[in-house]
Amino acid sequence: MKYILMMNTMRAGHGVPGWKQKDLQAHIAFMMNLNKDLQRAGEFVSAEGLSFPDQAKQVRAGKDGTPITDGIFPESKEFLAGFWIIDVDSPERAYAIAAKISSAPGPQGAPLNMPIEVRPVMSAPPPDML
Amino acid sequence: MTMTAMTSKWDANSEHLLRELAPQVLGTVARRFRDFVSAEDAVQEAMIAAFTQWPQEGVPENPRGWLIQVASRRLTDQVRSDIARRERETTVAREAEVIAPMVDLKSDSDMDPHDTLILLFMCCHAALTSSSAIALTLRAVGGLTTAEIANAYLVPESTMAQRISRAKQSIKTSGVGFRMPSPQERAERLPAVLRVLYLIFNEGYASSIGMQMQRLDLAREAIRLTRAMKALLPDDGEVTGLLALMLLTDARRAARTGPEEELIPLDKQDRNLWDQEEICEGIELLTAALAKGAVGLYQLQAAIAAVHDEAARAEDTDWPQILALYELLMRVSPGAIVSLNHAIAAAMVHGPARGLDLLKTLDSQLSGHYRLDAVRGHLYEMVGDHESAIRHYRIAAGRTTSIPEQNYLITQAARLEERST
Predict the structure, then answer these.
(1) Domains and CATH numbers, chain B
(2) Cβ–Cβ of B162/A129 closer than 8 Å?
(3) pLDDT tens across A42-72, in order?
């Protein structure tokens, strides 16, 4: 079963965090190790970090199909900062990995406990359909 | 390589031959070196070497011997370098020659047709999780490369390689030796082996739609492996039953999707597209299995598939027989999904109201499962309560994790809504 684990951050808090170097290094090391662990466990499918929201554009098709780009709406509160796609044997395992990500260390090494959104990735239909 | 003197041309059958040889070669090498984990890696390397060299240089006269020699060489090199490393640390006697026995390529004396069976029991051991058992079975018994398996399951090759290496580690720590399990152990462990083969089949059959044309046909691989297993255990009714079930299901493959890749339910399928050869073989196998007595879960499911396959038109389906088979299945292998299918059969025999009644008992076990709502939608539609049907189709659409199925359910709701306005 494949799941996507989405890390959302508040717009207000987004940007390069003004953490101490030691705390930043601990955070980066934590994330690198997490990916390595997922690879070693044979559960890793992909992981991407996304650029900061000020790089984002809203795109819409104009009347003739040409793209109309716009800045992002300032009222949007949450932004996708990054995601993982994992392939695991149970939803419980997906939740456990999400909890691990959530506990990534922040300032003074305290766990951030950030919310991680977990959703199943759509897959093939079961063979026996009504 | 000294064996390339006589070769034959690489053709469509060569790839098949190569895969068939994989478990035999692995069996031989694992027994000689008494190390399954390393032997499996070495055979995989030999397979990859064959896949690269044979199409260009031709298939060697003794392909099995070629693979054994290449795999043994890899293992010997590895043993030597391991010893060399240990010698640097401690003083160990030179054991390389002892550990790497001479390979007699002409002799087939150490070839055991049961190696494939031993390997299946090993790879599907209860110590492994389903996903790792599947991966290892496809590589060690199926002769597939890691890249092919990764591609079939849409995960990176490195992830699949890790999954396989962890599977082998679990085998090592659980202490399962490379030997045939006793008849009693075999009886206990057979369901796990059949389950893994069935999971591989289902994955292949389910995903054989959409944009995944480049993917390896896992359904075919599962049928091939189950065939091999049936050849080794011809008297086991459940092994035969599983093979029959796969064939009777696979026969409908071409009919289950329309031109836009949309799912077509059984009663709307163009039955001319069903593969009659597979149906005939499946029914023959099933008849033989049922004659042996001891009817199990796969034989019953195959029997249900056979009743569907034998009906020339959907309205000719012998639902009373299907209902009777589901009642047996509920006794042999009780479970909520079996009960759900039983309710459908009951609705087809005794009317949708009976089916809806039976579904009430499943609410607690299947709460939140989209299939329950999908079936309710269908039965409410049969009763003529379109409003409830639309509601349940939509709930089911919101809960399924499959896009083709979601599209199907949304379309059902839309069709009913248009009809009632």
Answers:
(1) 7-99 (no CATH), 115-132+149-175+182-232 (no CATH), 234-317 (no CATH), 334-421 (1.25.40)
(2) no
(3) 999 999 988 877 788 889 999 998 998 887 7
Domain A2-120 has CATH 3.30.70.1060: yes
Closest-CA residue of chain A to B405? A125
DSSP character string of B273-324: GS-HHHHHHHHHHHHHHHHT----HHHHHHHHHHHHHH-SSGGG--HHHHHH
In whole angstroms, how far apart are CA B345 and each of B292, B315, B319, B322? 27, 13, 6, 7
ipTM reported for the complex, 2 dp: 0.81
pTM above 0.90, yes or no: no
A126 touches chain B (CB under 8 A): yes
Q: Tens digits of per-residue pLDDT, A63-109?
A: 998 998 887 766 667 788 899 999 999 999 999 999 999 999 998 88
Please answer yes or no on whether A42 and B164 come within 8 Å at the CB atom: yes
Question: Rounded to an integer, what distance in angstroms lies between the CA atom of residue B313 and that of residue B257?
Answer: 18
pLDDT value, residue B168: 93
Contact B162 A127 (CB under 8 A): no
| Chain A CA closest to residue B210 | A124
